[in-house]
Amino acid sequence: MSSTTEKTSRVSVEERLFSLVLALIATEIGLTKADILSTVQGYRQRYVPGGNNASLERQFERDKDDIRELGIPLEVVEPPDDPGSNHHLRYRIPKGLYDLPADVSFTADELMLLKLAATVWREGSLSAESRRAMTKLNALGIDASDPVLGYSPSLRVREASFEPLSKAMDRGQVVAFLYLKPGEAAPRRRQVEPRAVVLYDGRWHLFGTDRDAAANRTFLLSRIAGPVVAVPGATFVPPGEGQAQEAIGELDALWNANIASVSVQSGSDAAVRLSKRHSAGSVRLHELDTAVYLHYTDLNVLADELAGFGPEVLVRSPAALRSAVRSRLIAVRESHTDAPTIGLTEEGE
């Protein structure tokens, strides 16, 4: 592949994050930011030796947040001879955390299936470009020959709006999109300066400045209807480091402030699934029911989830969540029957 073709080839976000995780697992001593940007697939195509790589560095900062949101422990190692130096910080992922426990074993059939899955994953997900990047890492003194299949790829599927929003952030472009808020009959056009896209509580959020409201807002990417387009001639100063943390801080505050009280049937699917969520605790009401207290950031997203459990769940508070779940259950019933909307009382959720 020629250098021109290599620089213009498009690397997906998933492949870039995957290559970054592989590189950080493979190293024992860690990689500096310069090592990563100049070597790892997805960065090196745009890296300019000795030039301005500010947008690439911002991309790396967002990727670090994404890796941590995926639950992967990313370590930052300071050089002992130059503490506090950002230029010489090294990044690594401790490979030992992905080793199987000593008491875990597999049958012959299970091993055969695991080997088959590993082969499909290795050939299907680790492209020739990624393998070439791993080879280049050897030149940095990194032993990349150890198997890294102990790491399970758990990168989440992103909404279609993720890529254009990321590009707009790098280029300082104002974007426009249709956004459908719950309770509104039709989506409204928004003009936003995108400042961070973060994964929080399993969902992607856009943190940016809404130009019409002249204030910062957080948008759920799943509610963006249609394409994200750049507004001709509208630009802003690209965000620096810390925007993602600011967005997560606002979502943390919202999550901590919102608590729902829900009764679940003991032993039900709802009891098993909701008990695994981050919650404010649970109280056994009696033999048949347990009260679970759930933190949440978006009332309507939680209402969709709770309605899916049907009669296994009874929302006690807040009233707005209770009403939202009830309306969803009524809509489901009406879509399956011609019966009038009677009989589903407030206690029938």
TrEMBL record:
Pfam families: WCX, WYL. Residues 162-226 form the WYL domain. Residues 291-329 form the WCX domain. PANTHER family: PROTEIN PAFB (PTHR34580:SF3), PTHR34580. This is WYL domain-containing protein. It comes from Cryobacterium breve.
